[in-house]
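Morning F.,

Quick status update on the modeling queue. The single chain you submitted on Monday has been processed. Sequence for confirmation:
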Amino acid sequence: MYLAFDDTDSRRGMCTTYLMAKFLQETGFAVKGFPRLVRLNPNISYKTRGNGALCVKLGIHGSGTRNVIGSFNGHSIYSYENVEEIPDSCVLMKEAVALVQEYAELNEDSTNPGVVVMESPLPSDFYSKALSGEIAIEEAEMKLRDAGANFVKIKNGRGIIGSAAAISWPMNSVTYECIAYRYPRGESISHERKIEIAEFANTFPGTFNNIDRDNDYAAIFPKERTPVIYGLRSRFHEGLINFSNELDEAFGILPESKILYVTNQGTDDHIVADPQSIRELGSYSVQGRIMENPEVIQGGHYFATLLYMGSAIRIAAFEPTKSFRRIFSSLRIGDVVRVYGSYVNGSLHVEKMQVLDLSKQFIRSPPLCSRCGKRMHTRGMNDFRCPSCGAKAKHPDYVEVERKLSPGLYDVPVMSRRHLSRPFDIETERTVYQ
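Structure tokens below.
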């Protein structure tokens, strides 16, 4: 039986992922596989703080191979190879709703939890739609009813959308995250200590988005006040919990609980490659030729125009992308690039970029004197004179400009990356942690 919940947090506190740790510890249901942390469309207006929904497959009892997937107050939480089916979805629903009502930020207008319990997922196109557009509460409700799901809406219940999408995630591409918690406000750690811990976290194999050295930012720690202490992201799950325990011991961190999630973070699941049409709120990868040189507007935002499938597309590098704007501003007419990002308010907000080919750029220069080899001076339109011998010429030279940009792969800084965006450097292999 699948259980999913979403939309329990707010800007002021809580984290929906914490409810998973609390639920698994308090209820004692058997877990099959890993709990899921599923990020959804980052562009919608009513998204939650991290726009992530939680899902887990549960049974009454577990059998076969078991693995540690977390802990709560020193007691291990296990997952099993097989689980005995839960005969009544109401048993799960009662426990989940009670927990949501106790911990969710229900006093906030923007918090509208939804809980879903069902035997089989909706078709994966529901997940795809939840990444590329907006789904009405009524549409999600209709599809869940047709599928025989048991669901509860708290307040307006918008959380059923994310919950249904999390269950329908096909898991074609995955990463993992081990999240450590202390309720209700994590742990107070100095900035210098956070940087040190993030550097340590960066030694785990396949890890990504831990630290932004250029901007002195430790990305494993949450920005807002939540029960989350830190999150360790990796392409691999083997050894991740053990590594997290070593980190805790090395730096004197005392989590109340931790959970190892399988996630769609860093997978580019939100990106549609080479679409026939581009729609508002969708996320795309498109290849084309620069039509207009970048220009900067107030606030430090850069814009350029890309020719894609015969149409002009506005592409943008906004101020939060920091040093990436320097790369973006170096583009010139004729360059061939592939850009990745979300199309919002009429422009594609670039999350990363591949520079495929650079155009040759030239500047107009007075010619060299054919007699004495000195550089001539400009006297007027198409009138050049040698300062040494007085020779004349009518036509300038054109000198190729050395480009400051090279073909290659360019990510935005770690502090600017979205949960779903797959960094180019995630492919780097490292020694497997023992």
